[in-house]
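FAQ: What does the model actually see?

It sees only this:
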Amino acid sequence: MSWGYGDFLLSKDCYFDELSKSNPFPVMFFLVLLFLLPGRGMMKFVTFACSNRLFIHGNMKAFFHDTLRIIFPYTCPACGTPLQRSEDTICLSCILQLPKTNFHLLPENPVLELFYGRFPVTGATAFLYFRKHGIVQKLIHQLKYHGAQEVGRKLGMLFGKDLRDTAFVQDVDFLVPVPLHPKKLALRGFNQAEVLCLGLEKTLGIPLVKDQLARKEFTETQTRKSMYERWENVFNVFEVRDPALFEHKHILLVDDVITTGSTLEACMQSMREIPGIKISVAVLAKPVL
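And it is asked to produce this:
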């Protein structure tokens, strides 16, 4: 996906001044510079324009928006087509094609069944089915490996809209993301589960609590490990810093993808002794086996 200078200029952090309302020449000059200035020079000019808080109103702003979208197109991370002005992050066509599970509406479902005999979860769901080379894999790869955090926030918001006004989240007190070890967090720059929580928080209105559940040991990736190896890899690596915060609370534990459930189970085991706690699980995707 390509987040262009145009999107930055038209975001809430960047404006153009009133004088452009009556005089379009500064805008035309700006557009010419966008074409002529290479790399760093262009970025310096963009920074200068933003720091001086210049901005456009009405039809001129619409013209400027469309022109910048042509020069620096903002494309859908799933299909690669340019986004329309009315579309946000993911194109409408791809949103309509998202393979939803609707597990949150089922009292028994494949995610909940993963924890039978392992941990007494209150509820469990996954938003989407994950298929190899499918639309969900493309979106998750953009989030995790290309730093497209806006994709995670958008998916979290869409997930939240489906969960909102359902019994699944009716008495949830906190959203808690599965943590990354500080080393991995430093390498990636963000926690994808936390990014999903930001989207969920926006649509559900349930507060996000981060940094309370922590990963105290660095572990190898879970990819290509058996179920036992996955559990062994994450056994006793999580801790709760202030257990009193979760006493008699219902928390929604959030992660991106669930396979065997070993990581989530390890998180829950670290909270087992907290008095009166209830734990539900919400993940973005579950692979289709």
